Amino acid sequence: VDIMNFRSLNNQFGHHIGDRVIRLFARRIEESMRRNEKIAKAPSRDAPPADDYWRRAYRKYAGGDEFFFLIQGDEVEAIGFAVRLKRQIVLSIQPGVDEITGGGFELDVYCGVAQLKPGSDFETANSHVLSALVRARKRFSGRAIYWSSGREASDFPEGSFARRAYRDAADLFQ
Question: Against a cut of 0.70, is the pTM above it?
Answer without folding.
Answer: yes
